[in-house]
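During the second year of the project, the team shifted from modelling isolated chains to modelling whole assemblies. The rationale, set out in the original proposal, was that interfaces cannot be judged from single-chain predictions alone. As a representative example for this report, we include one of the complexes processed in the last quarter. Its constituent sequences, exactly as entered into the pipeline, are reproduced here:
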Amino acid sequence: MIKNYNIVIAGLGTVGSSTINLIEKNKNIFLMKSGLRINIVGIFAKNKSKKRNFKKNKYKWFSNPLEMIKQKDVDTVVELIGGDKGIAKKICFEALKNNKNLITANKALIANDGYELAKLAEKNKVKIGFEASVAGGIPIISTLKRNFNGIKINKITGILNGTSNYILTNMLEEKNQFKNSLKKAQKLGYAEQKPDDDLNGLDTLHKILILSTIAFNKKIDLKKVVFSGINNLRKDDVFYADRLGYRIKLLGICYLEKNKLKLVVEPFLISKEKELSNVNNNLNAIIIDSNNNNKTILVGEGAGGDPTSMSVVSDILNIHFEDKNDFMYGIKYQNLRKIKISNNLSNKDLFFIRAQIYDKPGAIAAITTILKNYKISIKSLFQEQINQKLFNVVILTHKCKKSFINLAASNLNNCKFVKQDSIIMQVLHV
Amino acid sequence: MIKNYNIVIAGLGTVGSSTINLIEKNKNIFLMKSGLRINIVGIFAKNKSKKRNFKKNKYKWFSNPLEMIKQKDVDTVVELIGGDKGIAKKICFEALKNNKNLITANKALIANDGYELAKLAEKNKVKIGFEASVAGGIPIISTLKRNFNGIKINKITGILNGTSNYILTNMLEEKNQFKNSLKKAQKLGYAEQKPDDDLNGLDTLHKILILSTIAFNKKIDLKKVVFSGINNLRKDDVFYADRLGYRIKLLGICYLEKNKLKLVVEPFLISKEKELSNVNNNLNAIIIDSNNNNKTILVGEGAGGDPTSMSVVSDILNIHFEDKNDFMYGIKYQNLRKIKISNNLSNKDLFFIRAQIYDKPGAIAAITTILKNYKISIKSLFQEQINQKLFNVVILTHKCKKSFINLAASNLNNCKFVKQDSIIMQVLHV
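Output from the structure prediction step:
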């Protein structure tokens, strides 16, 4: 028995186009496996005249996406425009208000307005699929909601931003400066033309926040989270870390501790022997630590048309079959609890410090005295000349508290021998 | 609204006990997330008097499992005894015949009788959950059925046997002989007292066969597959491979090619730079290659009470919610097609050869002449003295066809200088 299933697609960029092509190509697979015939009964993008790599004329084009949504025979609205404001937001809310299921890859919107979306979807008894919003082709949303649904999750640790991971890998492997690695990432389609949110950590924050809500059933106020990215790092940092036995990875980490949700987004040093250190280029990876320290690791492409459209399509296929009890975050909206956020990992750990210092007598003594004043002892120190006036001093500390490091950092940055704010990264044992 | 959900459990070993403890511990999580109250309304094991690490008296014990199954209020039968014959098989078939859902971790049974189980379940409109049957805590069944349901899967490659992987890792890391590594694996609970099916590759074959059926929707005749395991390997092999830049991994591989299903289970050499080479100890890993070479890798514990019981419990929770369209292999039984099997990878590749040779003049010449006769050229060769009479000769060939290697191997094994059958392993580029 064949069931017709009608969708509309808003947003026809890389992911939108790949989704349409995938649906056309695999029609027979859907029919055979699910008995579903997926009909695309409307498409919309901001720019109609732009060239697309699918047959535009096959589909009904709407210049007003809200009109498109409101068609009576639409089952599901697929939003692939992106962004937490403007038309993308309007489309998502209007879809739910009009009792349509919603599928979206929009992590910024979900991180900002996901709870409102969940509430509205429950009220109107429709469903939200957002597998494509985190880690493209890695089925992490489904895994957390359906496979880790019966147990306590301890911690989630993820490399969630392919752009940053590519740049970190490329600086090391091809000895490129940051800006050249970024250019290469853009050329390969791994970075957008405006990559700020990828590089400053915001994109990683959006994603780890979404995963946290599913894993821990907490409501998180995005605005209260402090985060950082890789935009201050330089090629030197990657090589110094390498020399000390580490790789640099931008991570999102979350776990519950003493009635607080620890939510941390920053670059860390990871020993070369650990799994995550070998997740390179544009790959993403997520470690789920659960049930008596059972670790499950998922690795795959975090972005791009092919992997992401796979997640969009699996959502389209599954949304039809799932029970009404499939809540957006795996739990009723009303059962999501508010929680205080902390942005510091509590463990003592090693820290990497790189300070750019004027080549003057007393410089090293000044730096090491600052560390001594905060009881920070040094495990390893080396320096490297940058030019006639400047050198880098690189320090790996023994285990110490982050709070002490923060105090020392602010003193370092005010020190007359130090040229610019120092780079400080924690070593993570994952 | 709370729904009571009644299960019975047959088999109370490591996984059975962990499942009961997990259900008791997380009652409130199930209630909150799914509104399900899971009641264990019967337990059975072969040996009633054996000590168990849960409160046996809390549950109704049945000495006849068939009587247990047939209770009117039972929704789902959980079979955790294992084995493709005897009472486990009887329980599984009787459960379905009596219109009960079935959850099982029994890979041997599914590999042998899965198609019959699927047919019966469809006929009686009940469901089968078998997430726990492959790779314990890795949600590979669900991932293939629900996340890769809309695309073409190209290939699956897996480290699926924790016992073998532990022994291979341990021989290298602790320089143990095979039998001592096996003993240690047994001590740690990573190997059974009768580990034959783990070491000879049969367990890996069961698992890759199950994954193949879901990925490619083919019926596979288990009896037609040739397979091998690690039982002939020795500590030396692991070290020789290491010296050449490789790790040895027992893999299950499957893909479609020219109307045949390639199904291969044997130990391979994998470059130390590749992801799978770093999956060590008792870990399992699966690479899903799909949709334009998008690679997704899942890594986790392949066995043991905690990870496996997680999969059993997620099956219990999900089986209740899923649609009637949730077919065992993701597709109707009648749509599974028979297919011819081939056990040879078709690519030319490098091969590792270790021959144990008598220390006599002409020995090396005899070996290399055999290779030359089959146009196999040598990339690297070294020899190592075993004792006064014997030495190992280790050869890494240039790329050549497996069929030529097989012919050469049979000649090698008949050569008067060669003491015992040579070890031959293919290098795999994954």
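Chain A has a mean pLDDT of 94. The domain at 3-138+307-335 of chain A is CATH 3.40.50.720 (Rossmann fold).
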